[in-house]
Write a structure and sequence with these properties.
The chain has helices spanning about 15-25, 35-40, 45, 65-75, 90-95, 110-145, 150-160, 180-190, 205-215, 230-235, 250-265, 290-295, 300-305, 325-340, 345-355, 360-375, 380-395, 405-415, 420-440, 445-455, 460-465, and strands spanning about 5-10, 30-35, 50-55, 80-85, 100-105, 170, 195-200, 240-245, 265, 275, 280-285, 310. The protein is α/β, with parallel strands linked by helices. Helix 14 (about 325-340) packs across helix 16, helix 17 (about 380-395) runs antiparallel to helix 19 (about 420-440) and helix 20 (about 445-455) crosses helix 21 (about 460-465). Residues about 395-400 and about 405-415 have low confidence and may be disordered.
């Protein structure tokens, strides 16, 4: 079965039907056609179109009446009206009834291609909104399960206070704390929830590509610009745009964004006139914007425009009481998603999770629980925490056991020599001692369990404990 988009052409002119069939087929669409509204409506079940072109003047049931029937049967499928008359009253009525676009005959191939592209992209955004709506509420509830943590209570209160307004919000926090979920919660609770939510990662694209992505371009604006492209701000018109990692935006683009915030308008690349939009902006960053302003990396006037209301998300280590609630939430969510029967985690595993520092925050916890649900074993969580702890221990040995690198540097400057093998051996022992001590602490000095986690024999562990001065336990 073909995965191509399906186009239904409704027109009483055989020449137009053939022309549209040729043009749409060349674009890779599967094309079906009908000569009148009655036969088109009757054949909807068989054609199952993704997009429809509809002649405004048809024999029998006219174009507007057909449009009404189509929107009743397939409310989410975009319909492009075609007419040789282009009467203002008809255009207004067609758009009011739900037509996605209106083209006057004769039209250029580029006009039809643009109308198809625009209709399908808008339709995709609407479908994403519908699909995400339930997920957003579920994920947001999971994120906001902060127990009695005062900082999370403040986050919840701020979201409730400003969600149903058009005010600009800046969400701040470490990576993985849930900044996008806060943005989606603000959107979901707003009066724009029926309109698109458009996300743009400002760090994902070079400056030139990001500008065309945000603001679009006109045909001929640069080499390869063969037709007009709408930007994300236009797709988010009357909706919400989420600018993630806003601190990574280049200064030139910052000035253009400032214009949108101040005047609600911008110009496409290569455009001669301004485009007006009504878009709510939510921005997020994991960087210190105040330092970026002081260093000249971020515009001060843009900073104040964005920072009207600020939501600060605490790292998970500062609200560790939320770990059991979040764990239960993610267990239930992924158990349902993957059709797995899940049980509450053991007390031992939960204790390990409560002692862990969660450098990746809520995202790290979610990924661990997802892995545990898929694999059906708590060991997936324990091994991942152990692996992360080992990485931290190797990277940052405790000060009392650390090598005196300052002294070594001094010796090097004075032309002194080193026994590199001895230094390497000492570094390995420092890391080994730290890892063993950490695992013993997590297992409450249960040597048998610690040996299993370290993947060595019980006797080998006892020997290494003695060698590292850990034989006396706690």
């Amino acid at each position: 079965m073909s995965d191509a988009f399906r186009v239904l052409v409704i027109d009483d002119d055989p020449g137009i039907r053939e022309y549209l069939h040729t043009v749409a087929s060349r674009q890779g669409y599967d094309v079906f056609s009908a000569a009148d509204g009655e036969s088109a409506i009757a054949g909807l079940a068989g054609s199952r179109p993704d997009i429809i072109t509809l002649d405004a003047v048809l024999p029998g049931m006219d174009g507007l009446e057909t449009l009404g029937k189509l929107k009743e049967a397939l409310p989410h499928v975009p319909v492009i009206m075609l007419s040789g008359h282009g009467q203002a009253r008809m255009i207004v009525e067609a758009m009011r009834m739900g037509a996605s676009d209106f083209l006057r005959k004769p039209f250029e191939v580029e006009e039809l291609e643009l109308a198809f592209s625009k209709a399908l992209e808008t339709h995709a955004l609407k479908e994403e909104v519908v699909n995400l709506r339930g997920r957003v509420r579920s994920e947001a509830e999971g994120l906001l399960l902060g127990g009695d943590n005062a900082k999370m209570q403040e986050v919840r209160e701020t979201i409730e206070q400003v969600a149903d307004t058009d005010i600009t919000v800046l969400v701040r926090g470490e990576s993985g704390t849930g900044k996008e979920l806060v943005a989606r919660a603000l959107y979901q609770l707003s009066n724009r929830s029926e309109r698109p939510f458009v996300k743009v990662n400002c760090a994902a694209l070079p400056s030139e590509l990001l500008e065309s992505e945000l603001f679009g371009f006109e045909k001929g604006a640069f080499t390869g610009a063969q037709k007009r492209k709408l930007g994300k701000f236009e797709y988010a018109n009357r909706g919400t745009i989420f600018l993630d990692e806003i601190s990574e935006m280049a200064p030139g683009l910052q000035a253009k964004l400032l214009q949108v915030l101040q005047d609600g308008e911008f110009s496409r690349l290569g455009g001669e006139s301004d485009v007006k939009v009504d878009t709510r902006i939510i921005a997020a960053t994991n960087r210190n914007l105040e330092e970026a302003v002081r260093s000249g990396e971020f515009r001060e006037d843009l900073y104040y425009r964005l920072n009207v209301v600020m939501v600060a998300l605490p790292p998970l280590r500062d609200r560790i009481d939320a770990v059991p609630l979040l764990t239960e939430h993610f267990l239930q969510m992924y158990g349902e998603q993957y059709g797995k029967e899940v049980r509450p985690l053991s007390v031992e595993t939960m204790n390990v999770m409560m002692e862990y520092k969660w450098p990746g925050n809520v995202r790290e916890l979610e990924n661990m629980i997802k892995r545990m649900v898929v694999l059906g074993s708590e060991q997936a969580v324990l091994k991942e925490i152990q692996r992360q702890d080992i990485a931290v221990a190797v990277a940052r040995p405790p000060e009392e056991d650390a090598l005196n690198l300052g002294s070594l540097s001094s010796d090097l400057a004075e032309g002194g020599g080193f026994d590199l093998k001895a230094i390497s051996k000492r570094a390995a022992r420092v890391a080994e001692k730290q890892v063993i001590e950490r695992v013993l602490t997590q297992t409450r000095w249960n040597r048998k369990e610690a040996a299993q986690r370290l993947q060595i024999s019980y006797k080998a562990l006892l020997y290494k404990m003695k060698e590292n001065g850990l034989s006396d336990g706690r």
